[in-house]
Amino acid sequence: MSTQRPGQNHLHGTAVHAAAQILSVGTYLPSERITNAELGEMLGYDVEAFCADRGIGVRHRAGPGESTSDMAVMAAKSALKQAGISASDVDLIILATDTPDFVTPPTSPIVQHKLGASRAGAFDLNAACADETIALAVGSNYIALDADIERVLVIGAYAMSKWLDFGPYDRSTSKVLSMLFSDGASAVLLGAAKEPGFLASKIAADGSYWDTYGIYLGTAQPPDHRMIDAGRHRLRFHEHGHRVPGDFNEARWADLVAQTMGKLEIEPSELKLLLTNQVERKATETTLTRLGLAPNHTCWVADRLGYAGSASVFMALEEALEQGRLAAGDLLALCTSGAGFILATAVFRW
C-alpha cells in the first residue's frame, strides 16, 4: 500500500510536494513619506523632472531606530495574518535584501527570532534588486523537493535610505541615486499545493558592470576613517565611471521573459500579468510591447509607494491581488534586475 500523501510525488524514495503556490502577500511601509517636491527642496535639484519618466512619485524612509529586520517582520506578520497561518507553522524564511542589519550575522535569523517562527530555518539572499524573484524560485524549489518544507516566507526588505546622502546635490556622494530609492518590506507566503504554482525561472548576470554603483565597502575595500569622512561609505557611483547603459533593462527583460516562457513552451503573450522592478516605467512599457502584451498587463505602484528595491515587485503583486487582477489558471511572471548586474524571472500559474 502506498504511503504517499496527497499532493506529493516520490523522488529517489523521498516524498516531495507537487508544487508551490503563493498563499498571501503582505507589505509594510515606514510612516515618513517624502514627495518629489519635498526631496527637491532638500537636494536643491529638480527631482520631479528627473523622476517623471521613471514613474517614481514618492519615497518612504525608515525611522532612525527602524531596521531592515523590523520592516521585514511587519510585512511577514501581514502576510501570515492574511493566510490565517501562525509564525510557528513556517518551515523556512528567506530574506531577500542587500541592506541587511549587519554584514554578519545574517538578518534572517534576527527576523525569525523577532517573528517568533521558532521552527523555521532561515537564510539571507543578496542579489540586489533581483533577489526577491530568485528567492521566490528557491523557496518554491524547496517546497517541491523537500517533504519537510511546506510553508516558506519569502521577504523582500529594503532600507537603502540608511546608505543615501540626502545633502545638497552638488556635494552629495549619492547624486541621483538618492532620488530613486524608498524603504519598505513585502512578504510572500508560499505553500505546498497539488497543482502549479511555480512553473519556471531563469537567472542571468553580467558582472562587467560590478563597478557601476553600489556600497563599496567590505573585504575588497575595508572601511576606514578617511572613507567615512569623505562619505564614500554611502551608495554611490564607482570612481571607474563605468555606467550601465540607459536601456539596460529595456534591452534584456523581454528576451529573458521569452526564454523563461520557452522552457514551458508557452507564448509570452499568454501572460495575464508581468510585474517588474518599480524603477523604470518606460522599460516596463517597452518590455510589454516587445512581448505582445497590452499596457494593462502590469501593475505600477512606484508613483504612490516609491521604489523599495527588493520589496518592490511584491508590492506590485499585492496591489494586483487587491484589484482582483488574477484568477485561477492565469499566468504571472516576475522580472527583476539589480546592481552587479543580475537579472531574474519567475513564472507562476495562479
**Largest sheet geometry:** 5 strands, mixed
**What would the CATH topology of the largest domain be?**
Peroxisomal Thiolase, Chain A, domain 1
Strand content: 15-25%
Q: What's the CATH class of the largest domain, please? A: Alpha Beta
Q: Compute the CA-based radius of gyration.
A: 20 Å
Give the strand tally: 15
SSE order, one letter for each helix or strand = EEEEHHEHEHEHEHEEEHEHEHHHEE
Nearest-integer average pLDDT: 94
CATH architecture of the largest domain: 3-Layer(aba) Sandwich
The number of distinct helices, counting runs of at least 4 residues, comes to 11
Question: Helix- and strand-based class?
Answer: alpha+beta
Helix content: 25-40%
Strand order of the largest sheet: 3-9-8-6-7
CATH superfamily of the largest domain: Thiolase/Chalcone synthase
Overall tally of structural domains: 2
Low-confidence stretches: 1-13
Structure, explained:
- The chain is of the alpha+beta class.
- It has 2 domains: 8-195, Thiolase/Chalcone synthase (Peroxisomal Thiolase, Chain A, domain 1, 3-Layer(aba) Sandwich), CATH 3.40.47.10; 199-349, Thiolase/Chalcone synthase (Peroxisomal Thiolase, Chain A, domain 1).
- The chain contains 11 helices and 15 strands.
- The chain has helices at 36-43, 47-52, 68-83, 108-115, 131-145, 177-180, 225-229, 248-264, 281-290, 302-305, 312-322, and strands at 8-11, 14-17, 19-28, 32-35, 58-61, 92-96, 121-125, 151-158, 184-193, 198-205, 213-214, 236-237, 273-276, 331-338, 342-349.
- The strands form 5 sheets. The chain has a 5-stranded mixed sheet, with helices on both faces.
- A hairpin with a 2-residue loop joins β1 and β2 (14-17).
- α3 (68-83) packs across α4 and α8 (248-264) crosses α9 (281-290).
- It is globular and about 55 Å long.
- The chain starts with 7 loop residues before the first strand and ends with a strand.
- Residues 1-13 have low confidence and may be disordered.
